[in-house]
């Protein structure tokens, strides 16, 4: 996403968005904490995709503090999300990733996710987001 778009995001808007998301039934938000500071988080919920069965969960977000990338935080969050998916009887887990985000794609592939051939493009003011869906057994 363009830096200008990300720079324009207002924290209070994100708080409202996440407050609403967390309150939704079936939504799990996992946080990684180190020395009383959040260093990453991940959210998991039943898949929002129209072609998904009720047995499919979706990781809708995973973010790690840039200073903690490649430290194991992201891997721990993915593993925790997969464990919750198994406990909640989800058979598969999907996620969407920007097509051009090669480092994220490599991260997911190293953890057993594979592209399933489904793509989408979302229009935003002044730019488009091209994403590819990844999938794995829970």
Any overview of this molecule?
- The chain has 138 residues and is α+β, with helices and mostly antiparallel strands.
- The protein has a single domain, classed as Gcn5-related N-acetyltransferase (GNAT) (Aminopeptidase, 3-Layer(aba) Sandwich), CATH 3.40.630.30.
- The protein is 30% helix and 40% strand.
- Strands 1-2-3-4-6-5 form a six-stranded mixed beta sheet, covered by helices on one side.
- A hairpin with a 2-residue loop joins strand 5 and strand 6 (127-137).
- The longest helix is centred in the middle third of the chain and has 15 residues, at 73-87.
- It starts with a helix and ends with a strand.
- The model has no long low-confidence stretch (mean pLDDT 91).
Brief summary of the model shown:
This protein has a single domain, classed as Gcn5-related N-acetyltransferase (GNAT) (Aminopeptidase), CATH 3.40.630. The chain has four helices and six strands.
Strand content: 35-45%
Instruction: Give the H and E element order.
Output: HHEEEHEHEE
Shape: globular
Question: Count of DSSP E strands?
Answer: 6
Looking at this protein, list some descriptive labels:
single chain, about 140 residues, alpha+beta, Aminopeptidase, six-stranded mixed β-sheet, 6 strands
Topology of this protein?
Elements: H1 3-7, H2 11-22, E1 28-34, E2 37-46, E3 56-64, H3 73-87, E4 92-98, H4 102-110, E5 114-124, E6 127-137
Parallel strand pairs: 3-4
Antiparallel strand pairs: 1-2, 2-3, 4-6, 5-6
């Amino acid at each position: 996403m363009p830096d200008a778009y990300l720079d324009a995001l207002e924290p209070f808007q994100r708080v409202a968005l996440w407050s609403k998301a967390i309150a939704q039934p079936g939504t799990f938000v996992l946080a990684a904490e180190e020395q009383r500071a959040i260093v990453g988080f991940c959210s998991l919920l039943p898949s929002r995709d129209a072609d998904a069965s009720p047995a499919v969960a979706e990781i809708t977000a995973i973010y790690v503090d840039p200073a903690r990338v490649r430290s194991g935080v992201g891997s721990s969050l993915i593993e925790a999300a997969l464990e919750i998916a198994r406990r909640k009887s989800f058979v598969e887990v999907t996620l969407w990733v920007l097509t051009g985000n090669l480092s994220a794609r490599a991260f997911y592939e190293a953890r057993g996710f594979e592209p399933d051939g489904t793509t989408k493009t979302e229009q935003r003011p002044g730019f488009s987001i091209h994403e590819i869906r990844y999938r794995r057994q829970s």
